[in-house]
Specification:
This protein is 22% helix and 28% strand. The protein is built from three helices and twelve strands, in the order ααβββββββββαβββ. A hairpin with a 5-residue loop joins β11 and β12.
């Protein structure tokens, strides 16, 4: 590359000052091209920024929290219960929502009297999900019973009475999930990776 740059400078018949200026420009251009080759694929397929809008995930996340979304992990492993994910809602495919994974493929999710019960192979009689991150004020009594298909997830906002989620828009297919909330960048006092809650399942 340096040899080619020198050839360009020599063939341009510029003086020393002009040649140096051209060399600087070409060096900068090279840096920009290399950066683009590295950054653009990372931005498109590995991670992407996300700014929280609305109150549906309070108290875990608040308006204008800056998150980094991991888009690559789910290509190598299954989505886990309790992870916070960003997805395209079926009724608004151009938009992005952020919710928590409650129900996994093949499970039945039942909501009654403000509690969520999970039915699966391990708990055929059902197991009430203990959610330490939920405020008592958000436990809305909306009876629901949903059987999930093999590629569907039940996603709900932590702030139950301020969230448009699977209770109204239905289960979310795997193809609609963009990735998991991985790192909180802002506010700085909350900087760090986003943990997965420990459930009683």
């Amino acid at each position: 590359m340096r040899k080619k740059i020198n050839e360009i400078i020599n063939s341009s018949h510029l003086g020393t000052a002009g040649g140096s200026f051209l060399l600087i420009i070409l060096d900068l251009l090279q840096v920009v091209v290399i950066a683009a080759i590295i950054i653009v694929p990372v931005r498109l397929w590995v991670v992407k920024p996300f700014i929280v809008k609305g109150a549906s995930m309070e108290e875990a996340f608040h308006q204008n929290d800056y998150l980094v979304i991991d888009q690559i992990s789910y290509k190598f492993r299954d989505i886990q219960r309790g992870e916070v994910v960003v997805f395209h809602p079926p009724n608004r495919p151009s938009e992005h929502y952020i919710k928590r994974v409650i129900g996994l493929p093949g499970e039945t999710v039942a909501i009654a009297e403000g509690e969520i019960t999970i039915y699966n192979d391990e708990y055929p009689n059902g197991k009430i999900l203990r959610e330490s991150y939920i405020s008592d004020e958000t436990l809305v009594d909306e009876p629901v019973s949903e059987v999930l298909k093999e590629n569907e997830y039940y996603l709900i906002g932590d702030n139950r009475d301020a969230s448009l989620d699977s209770r109204r828009i239905g289960p979310i297919s795997n193809d609609s999930i963009v990735g998991r909330a991985w790192i909180r960048g802002l506010p700085l006092e909350d900087f760090g990776t986003i943990p997965i809650p420990n459930y009683n399942l």
